[in-house]
Automatic annotation (TrEMBL):
Family statement: Belongs to the glycosyl hydrolase 18 family. Chitinase class V subfamily.
Molecular function GO terms recorded: chitin binding; chitinase activity
Lineage: superkingdom: Eukaryota
InterPro entries attached to this UniProt entry: Chitinase_II/V-like_cat, Chitinase_insertion_sf, GH, Glyco_hydro18_cat, Glycosyl_Hydrlase_18
Gene Ontology biological process terms, A to Z: carbohydrate metabolic process; chitin catabolic process
Leader peptide range in chain numbering: 1-24
Protein name from the UniProt record: GH18 domain-containing protein
Any Pfam family matching the protein: Glyco_hydro_18
GO terms for cellular component: extracellular region
Domain GH18: 27-370
Length: 370
């Protein structure tokens, strides 16, 4: 009897501990910070946020331990202390991964219990050593059914390890978050919903990069809303993604809506045909264009026309044959109001260094309210 009762009691206590810290998050007003964007950590207006993500820690391809590069060590180690000078209550999370280049390494790591343990233990140690309040997984993306199954195992084992570490150390448990695809279904493959519900404090729903002028887009030669909240022509939208997550079984209170502080620039075929879905000859610029750069483009080109489209909930502008789809104050405010109205936990932005004079961050914070 005792041999059965003790594991039961332990699992019950673990479950209650999970509920305790999960229930502690009442709202999330967040943004990622990424080095090299021209915004120093000390310049972040942390009063506009409840949580800030420091991106990115690396995953060693051989031993599967989480590390911080030497070039980022000084900024990452003082990140929490620095942003709390302006806002002592802001919570910080160390983000791991980022981008599709590290996806194969994540897949290899998650495939075995021993390598998952290496990842998990090193992540917790690194977060504590650098005074972060939590950890954020950015695996873009698992691409097979086996990888999604392994993701579920990783999340469950990570949560158990975080709970055990908190119990043994007496510390507040680390937050555990992940940035996932905009929908619970990734091209026919389903995220491990039960593990997500049991193990994560919340999911950062990446409701952006729906379209672009680049080859990875489904329609690079048609202008579009890169982060449409609604889309009357397809199911690819922020609203459809949120609905899919909730229908799959993830509580709205575990979902945080992502918004971009950047856009994409197309080259119009005809300067006079300049609406959404206008024909284009690919990209006007070689990469994404930050909100800082978009506002500079508008200021430097006096003939620029700016438009807010409430059907898609997007902004766009055009000058000559250059057409830029992006989020400005109107679309950001509408999206944040939507998130609150849907009962979501909050919103996050990629990324704060792209936000000229914190205009979008201020708009988002005001739209959410106190």
């Amino acid at each position: 009897m005792a041999s059965k009762t003790l594991p039961y009691l332990f699992s019950t206590l673990l479950f209650l501990l999970q509920l305790q810290f999960s229930a502690g998050q009442t709202e999330v007003k967040a943004a990622y910070w990424f080095p090299g964007t021209g915004l120093s950590v000390s310049s972040i207006d942390s009063t506009l946020f409840t949580h800030l993500f420091c991106a990115f820690a690396d995953l060693d391809q051989t031993i599967y331990q989480v590390t911080i590069s030497a070039s980022n060590s000084a900024q990452f180690s003082t990140f929490t202390q620095t942003v709390q000078q302006k806002n002592p209550s802001v919570k910080t999370l160390l983000s791991i991964g980022g981008g599709d280049a590290v996806a194969p390494t994540f897949a290899s790591m998650a495939g075995q219990a021993s390598t998952r343990k290496s990842f998990i233990d090193s992540s917790i140690q690194l977060a504590r050593a650098n005074n972060f309040h939590g950890l954020d997984l950015d695996w873009e993306y698992p691409s097979t059914a086996t990888e999604f199954t392994n993701l579920g195992l990783l999340l469950n084992e990570w949560r158990a390890a975080v709970a055990n570490e908190a119990t043994s150390s007496g510390n507040t448990p680390l937050l555990l978050v992940a940035a996932f695809f905009y929908s619970s279904n990734y091209y026919g493959l389903s995220y491990p919903i039960q593990a997500i519900t049991n193990s994560l404090d919340w999911v950062n729903v990446m409701a952006y990069d729906f379209t672009s002028p680049f080859s990875w887009s489904t329609a690079p030669n048609l202008t579009g809303a890169p982060a449409a909240l609604y889309n009357p022509t397809s199911q690819v939208s922020g609203d459809s993604g949120i609905a899919a997550w909730i229908q799959a079984g993830v509580s709205a209170k575990k979902l945080v809506l992502g918004v971009p502080f950047y856009g994409y620039a197309w080259r119009l075929v005809n300067a006079n045909d300049n609406g959404i879905f206008a024909p284009a000859n690919g990209a006007a610029l070689s990469d994404a264009i930050t909100y800082n750069e978009i506002k500079d483009f508008i200021a430097q080109n006096s003939d620029t026309t700016t438009v807010y489209n409430s059907t898609f909930v997007t902004n766009y502008c055009y000058s000559g044959t250059t057409w830029i789809g992006y989020d400005d104050t109107q679309s950001i405010s509408t999206k944040v109001t939507y998130a609150k109205g849907k009962g979501l936990l909050g919103y996050f932005a990629w990324q704060v260094g792209q936000d000229k004079d914190f205009v979008l961050s201020q708009t988002a914070s005001s739209a959410w309210g106190a």
